[in-house]
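Please review this one:
***
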Amino acid sequence: MSYKPTVLLDVDDVIAKYTEFYIHLATEVTGVWFEPKDVTEWDIVAALKLKPETDLEIRELMNQRCTSIPCDEKAKEAVNKLHEISNVVFVTAPLNYGEWVAKRYTWLKTHFPWMEYYYPCKDKSFVAGDVFVDDRAENLLKWHDRCVLRFNGRGTAILWDTTFNQNAPTESDNGQPLIRTRDWEVVIGNVKDCR
């Protein structure tokens, strides 16, 4: 029997179209047309030049409608393929939006009925795996330093390429590079290499 690797997947902007949904709500609230290309930094509120009270209104709508965030269809297809060859673990930082954790669980079960592992956590570096895909470089670097270097000595960190992480660091302090991609075949290939 061959080794079944564990792949850790962030949800927002890797699988769920969070930024697009936020932009849709921002347009609804402000009447100003925004596009994903407008989000060029991690802080979406700063990128869109929104007032804190506007962000609060958008967050309230997000909490009400978070189970309606679209799932990226290519991501859904790829995650189902990953499920066939690996243990898929969804790791996501919960937003402080009321019942977000339970609603995210419902969202995941709706799109991935086979889901077994869901870890809502602010610090993803405590979750062990062979491959970790996230859109935030800081999460990947911290995971690499804590989980990979200290525990099992191996692991692949994949930065999911977005408009808002173009200036993110692409290697750890010890020179370990992050793989930057928007290609699910790259992810699947790296998971297969772990077997």
Summary: The chain has a mean pLDDT of 92. The radius of gyration is 17 Å.
